[in-house]
Amino acid sequence: MATAEANRIVIEEQGPRDGLQSEQTVVPTAVKLQWIAALVGAGLSRVQVASFVHPKRVPQMADAESVCAGLIPQADVVYSGLVLNGRGIERAIAAGIQHVAISHSASDTHSQKNTRLTRRAAQSACATMIEQAQQAGLQVRGGVQCAFGCRSEGRIDPDAVLAMVTQHLESGVDELALADSTGMADPRSIRELMRRVVPLAQGRPVFLHLHDTEGRGMANALAAMDEGVRHFDTALAGMGGCPYIKGASGNISTEDLVCMAHQMGFETGIDPRRVAVVSEAVEAFFRRPFPGKMHRVLANPQLATLV
């Protein structure tokens, strides 16, 4: 890995999608666009802005097309959307999104709750969707959800995850993502799996999507960095959670990971103080705190001087 690449952490902000999908209070499109613009202004060069799913299942994402229509195009900014089926890809194409995330679960139980398909059926459907997206000229991120564990099924066999990863890579995806959807991963399991996945990817970006359900999110990110992982999904203020996973908590916080990365000597191109301002706006909108730490530290003049 080249020195400059090895020293840079790439972050995809998923607050506007994963962070909002479980919230009951629907955020107006104009407010979402304000938050997205502010996040880009803070240096986020990748933002997942919506999921193209049925509005009755995820009402918060019912305005996906309107959000996409209101985005400000920038040459160095990637806006992405999550799709779960062929209809979602058609909507993403019509909305002008150039980058889509296509994933399936390593857990049969989670897969049926999330997509109403068995794991094997969802895996087959993903291959078809990837081909559909590629034919439309979209950049594709292939992903495996629940890669480190399932609340119903327990630990997921790493060899099974490797087989799913291999299928994605053989399909020609541009990027790969492994999600600790239930927050069950620990630093050892992260190290063991990423030690096998990173070489398989042969230079293609490998993202980790970490949830902090059991309080190990940042420790898991550090373990992944030690194994050469340089790409992470985060959500401002530690928002997020899957509506189909009981007790699922938020993603690792954007500000928390950025600050830790900077303190360790990595570069991100992101100003955590400007992200923290958006996090405060989000907390004000929902009238409650979110679990991230550093946005509160950065808002305190006495503490912020030490960061």
Could you characterize what this model shows?
By secondary structure, this protein is an alpha/beta fold. The protein has a single domain (3-304), classed as TIM Barrel. The protein contains 14 helices and eight strands. It has an eight-stranded parallel beta sheet. Strand 7 (206-210), helix 10 (217-226) and strand 8 (231-234) form a beta-alpha-beta unit. Helix 3 packs antiparallel against helix 12 (272-286), helix 8 (158-170) runs parallel beside helix 9 and helix 11 (254-263) packs antiparallel against helix 12. The longest helix has 17 residues, at 119-135. It is globular, with a radius of gyration of 18 Å. The mean pLDDT is 91.
CATH superfamily: Aldolase class I
Q: Which geometry do the CA atoms define?
A: globular
Radius of gyration: 18 Å
Q: Count every beta strand, where a strand is a DSSP E run of 2 or more residues.
A: 8
Element string (H = helix, E = strand): HEHHEHEHEHHEHEHEHEHHHH
Number of helices: 14
Major sheet details: 8 strands, parallel
In terms of per-residue confidence, which ranges show pLDDT below 50 for 5 or more consecutive residues?
none
**Which structural class matches the secondary elements?**
alpha/beta
Strand order of the largest sheet: 1-8-7-6-5-4-3-2
According to CATH, what is the class? Alpha Beta
In round numbers, the mean pLDDT is: 91
Q: Can you tell me the CATH architecture?
A: Alpha-Beta Barrel
- Give me the CATH fold name: TIM Barrel
How widely separated are the two ends?
A: 29 Å
Helix content: 40-55%
Hey, roughly how much beta strand do the residues contain?
5-15%
Q: How many domains would you count in the coordinates?
A: 1
